[in-house]
Automatic annotation (TrEMBL):
Protein name: Hexosyltransferase
Keyword Glycoprotein: yes
CDD domains to which the protein is assigned, alphabetical: GT8_like_1
GO biological process annotation, one example: pectin biosynthetic process
Main location, first listed in the record: Golgi
GO cellular component: Golgi membrane
EC number: 2.4.1.-
Length: 597
């Protein structure tokens, strides 16, 4: 019994020893294998690193030895330039191989025998000659191809988009061949393809904007058009249909342009709701005042000829406020400024109330109504009824009041007249010291063809009339209203108001000029105009979105001439800031009327 137990113990211990020792032996063998592999990999990596370091060092030496070689510029080529790309890569690879061979040759020269040196010298000469030939060929090929490559890079490709649009036009032409009400398989397919292509193109402007699906739609449309060409093979009928479609499209474009022009003109003549509200609020406030509270201060200086007198004729409250505020804010001597604002009886209370609430600092201001000029009713209103224009800008008495300045200001010698759509950006005191040289009006000319403000006499005046052709030169330099300095003494001497009346009456009898006061100004002040520096008055902010920012910021006065006034929604947005900064939009009346920037 004891012997059996002993054998059991021996067998158990043997099994335990085997189970413990066997894993230890197995793991040790595996570790030995991994260690040998790791050592071999490390040695191999170390030798590779050493070889790379030697290569880098040799390449650096080779580049220093040959300073003429430069790395080619990286250029993105298109598919059509694939041939040039392949030739370029081939020559580059050959140059790289040659440089490596040259590097190997240098090693042999340093470490080999004399025979090896001679052989290596020969190899080096061959390599250098073949490398120079390859380089010359590459440079010549690059010189031949570079203009085309640069042109293709600069040009944004939209050929596929144009082709897809042409497909739509052709499909629409084929649809017009089908009988009215036709619902054939081809008609349905054409309509479907048109919708698919139009959706695929969407708002894309270049080929890179198109998706892969768009190109599939293009191929499907081409297949459908091929079918249609077999059904409708008559080319002459197709040409006729396309001409008719072109004509109809041009007519629609013309009508759309006319409609857009009409709507812009309508918007320019319409008073915005906020401005109308402001006038009503100010008028109500004005009539709530006692009569003695309605008087503006400093009225004793209104006729002092030694002061600087500015005039603006307007029925727009905010426009007058901007002209006055901008002029006074930049004036070095605001106490010398006298502003004369002339409006109509309807807007007199509102404008008066505005300046009672917002006096112009040290400057003096006078508000008058044109309806109180009793002398004007006999001279002007009788002829005004004959004006053949419905545009209030042309028929308004305020617009033509500029030709009666000596009568409006009988005690003054000089007046600077503003249109109400200007903004002053610097001190204008130097203008009053300009020598007028016997001229009546100082103005900025508009006779340079390279400028957007260019105006030609024959665009506004009818030179086919013998009287006009005899008295005026069609090539005479034109000028602009908006900011003009008038010498009233010279005006009175030359009796130019009578000249204005003469041409005004002639214009009623036969068509001599377009409606408006500008052509009348050109003929009235013909040869009586002195040109001012361009920087005094920059035009175009009411119609030209391309006026240079530098010109605007250097200008003494900027003018929103045109229909896109800064107080209208149709005004050019990027120019509005020059105007709005002179209005306090936190003013209670503006807040009440929802007027904001």
């Amino acid at each position: 019994m004891n012997q059996v137990r002993r054998w059991q113990r021996i067998s158990i211990l043997a099994l335990l020893s085997v189970s413990v020792i066997a894993p230890v032996i197995f793991v040790s063998n595996r570790l030995k294998v991994f260690t040998s592999i790791g050592r071999w990999d490390f040695a191999e990596e170390l030798s590779t690193t050493k070889f790379r370091a030697e290569n880098i060092r040799l390449n650096a030496i080779e580049q220093e030895a040959d300073e003429g070689l430069k790395e080619p510029k990286l250029v993105v080529y298109k598919d059509e330039d694939l041939g040039s790309l392949v030739s370029y890569s081939t020559s580059t690879e050959s140059d790289t191989k040659q440089s490596q061979n040259a590097g190997d040759t240098n090693i042999l020269e340093n470490n080999g025998t004399d025979e090896g040196k001679e052989e290596n010298k020969k190899m080096k000469q061959k390599t250098a000659s073949s490398g120079s030939r390859g380089k010359d060929q590459t440079n010549q090929a690059g010189a031949r191809r570079s203009p085309n490559v640069q042109a293709s890079l600069l040009r944004v490709s939209d050929e596929k988009i144009k082709e897809m649009k042409d497909q739509v036009i052709r499909a629409q032409a084929y649809l017009n061949f089908a009988p009215p009400g036709s619902n054939s398989h081809l008609v349905k397919e054409l309509k479907l393809r048109i919708k698919e292509v139009e959706r695929a193109v969407g708002a894309a402007t270049k080929d890179s904007d198109l998706s892969r699906r768009a190109f599939r739609r293009m191929k499907q449309m081409e297949a459908t058009l091929e079918k249609a060409s077999h059904v409708y093979p008559d080319c002459s009928a197709m040409a006729t249909k396309l001409r008719a479609m072109t004509y109809n499209a041009e007519e629609r474009v013309r009508l759309q342009k006319n409609q857009a022009t009409y709507l812009v003109q309508l918007a320019s003549r319409t008073t915005p709701k906020g401005l109308h509200c402001l006038s009503m609020q100010l008028t109500a406030e004005y009539f709530a005042l006692q009569p003695e509270e309605r008087h503006l201060p400093n009225q004793q200086d209104l006729h002092n000829p030694d002061l600087h007198h500015y005039a603006v004729f307007s029925d727009n409250v905010l426009a007058c406020a901007v002209v006055v505020n901008s002029t006074v804010s930049f004036a070095k001597e605001p106490e010398k400024i006298v502003f004369h604002v002339v409006t109509d009886s309807l807007n007199l209370p509102a404008i008066s109330m505005w300046f009672l609430l917002n006096p112009p600092g040290k400057a003096t201001i006078q508000i008058q109504s044109i309806d109180n000029f009793n002398w004007l009713s006999t001279k002007y209103n009788a002829t005004l009824k004959k004006e053949n224009s419905h545009d209030p800008r042309y028929t308004s008495a305020l617009n033509h009041l500029r030709f009666y300045l000596p009568d409006v200001f009988p005690a003054l010698n000089k007046v600077l007249l503003f249109d109400h759509d200007v903004v002053v950006q610097s001190d204008l005191g130097r203008l009053w010291n300009i020598d007028m040289k016997g001229k009546v009006i100082g103005a900025v000319d508009t006779c340079k063809e390279s400028e957007a403000s260019f105006r030609r006499m024959d665009l506004f005046i009818n030179f086919s009339d013998p009287l006009i052709a005899k008295k005026f030169d069609v090539k005479a330099c034109t000028w602009a209203f908006g900011m003009n300095l008038f010498d009233l003494q010279e005006w009175r001497k030359r009796k130019l108001t009578a000249v204005y009346h003469k041409y005004l009456q002639l214009g009623y009898k036969r068509p001599l000029w377009k409606a408006g006061s500008l052509p009348l100004g050109w003929v009235t002040f013909y040869k009586h105009t002195m040109a001012l520096d361009k920087r005094w008055h920059v035009l175009g902010l009411g119609y030209d979105s391309g006026v240079a920012r530098r010109d605007i910021e250097q200008a003494a006065v900027i003018h929103y001439d045109g229909v896109m006034k800064p107080w209208l929604e149709i005004g050019i947005a990027k120019y509005k800031g020059y105007w709005t900064k002179f209005i306090n939009y936190d003013h209670p009346f503006l807040q009440r009327c929802n007027l904001h920037v």
